[in-house]
Amino acid sequence: MLEVDVEVDRRAFTVRAAFQVSPGERLALFGPSGAGKTTLLETVAGLVPRARGRVVLAGRVLTQTWAPRRAVPPWRRRVGLLRQDPGLFPHLSVRQNLAYAPSADPSGEEISRIAEQLGIGELLDAVPARLSGGQAHRVALGRLLLAHCDALLLDEPYTGLDGGLRRVLTDLVRSLVAARQVPAVLVAHELADAQAFADRLAVLDQGRILQVGEPDEVVLRPVSQRVAELVGYRSFVPVTAPAGAVAGVHPERVTVGAHPRLGVVLAGPVLAGRPSGAGWEADIEVSGVMLSCHLADRPPIGQGDFPVTLLDPPCFGPDGALLPRPEVSRPGVSRPEEASA
Amino acid sequence: MAGAGIIWVALLGPVFALLTHLSWHAIGSSLSAPGALDPLVVSVESGAVTLAVLLVLGTPLAWMLARGTLPFPRFWEAGVLCSLLLPPLVIGLLLIFMVGPYTPLGSALGAVHLSATNTFLALVIAEVYESAPYYVLGAQAAIGAVDPRMEEQAALLGDRPARVTRRVTLPLAGPGLAMALAVAWARAMGAFGAVVIIAYHPYGLPLQIWTSLQETGLASALPFALVLLVVALPLPLAAYIWSARARGRRRG
Questions:
Q1: pTM of the model as a whole
Q2: Mutating which of B147, B150, B157 best tests the A interface, going by the most A Cβ atoms within 10 A?
Q3: ipTM
């Protein structure tokens, strides 16, 4: 179990967060750049001496800034950190990199086994400069596994690699975390990366954890308008009741036509449309608000009001907090009559 | 390319001139005189001691400059640059005020029967002054080029700081440190300005060239220049080759 409850002062704000990760569990810290995600990981790794609070890993107190004080140095933490740059030692061969940790099994038997498992068995005598990005990341991962870390920290490790490779490596880490039963924490600023990896997702903004939940729950039921913005809701349209409430519009949670049972029905002219992936992205203007929607087919541009339904959208009160579902599940919404007409 | 060729040929010009103006006879007569090779021994010994001093005292300074662990780092850097900017002759003159026999430091040395003028110690002091800034600045660049994240990764894998230094920092900074040391060696072997003021004796090779020139003329001085070149060259050359190989290996 990894237990973290820390504060770190930064120039603009104080990062203040508490979370727990069970053995074998994968937590993703998701948030915009500069939210304090990496600071949190580095605090767990013991790389932020000015951090205050408490970090406990597998029953060992690694950091405690009150009596009895404790500050275990990085080299005794048994915490593995993987960054975007795999950080292989350029003067050592792949085999020497894998066997770097003093705690690595010196016999070489485990090195061969893990190298095979990671698909780098043929590369043991190569130097890091000869490896592709994906191979270098596999070696870096193998090095952490051979170090027998008690926790795995991943700081956007696969940003910059192509999608297919990213998925393969993410799956590999998932299976290794399950096999080793260590807590794992991933930092990501791409929601899809965080969701692909995690059992649990924490949304971080300005140093605070705004919401923790299942990877789908956080997107479908963001607890506040700010969380909704962070997880991809691009616009907010006023709803009729209660006064001042708005419904969040996620481009991927919009369907064509008026389906009052599925959610909130809106209608407005399509101002623009452009291909996006296998579908279309359309800009629809409703009550002076521009909605960006992902649709399956090309929408009719500039041909009168086009009805769409927001699928079970989260609604937020004037204070930005999520409103309970029953109040807004009825289609008592802006201009539903026109839409169905 | 043309520019590179021009400067290379221009730099080698004096060496060609030296080789074309030497005769076997002059070499034989100059170097066979009794004690003729003593300056060579003095130069190599003082150069070696100078390098040891630089390694022991200069490396930590370079390290701290590179890592920004010193307060007011620009102030410390300016200090190193000052010694680089002062002409060696001026440094020699000023050293008289610092370590000459009538200074507190000089009398302290005298109390333990040492002297920092016209002794081997004085020669080493002068050579250290002439070569230290080159070593410190070069070593600072070499250490500064090591990615701190490499060291951080090594620490997280379980290495204590001393082990990180031994297994990661020094091997990665090695080629650059070797080059800095090679430059410092060349400066120490050729040191003249400060040496001629505070360490006229014992003669090293540059002083030998100077006195031969004054006493018997150019023909007898040139062979010592050849000796200086031959003796000083192998270390920098080896450092160059080793650095290039190490860098090549890392590039794959």
A1: 0.83
A2: B157
A3: 0.83
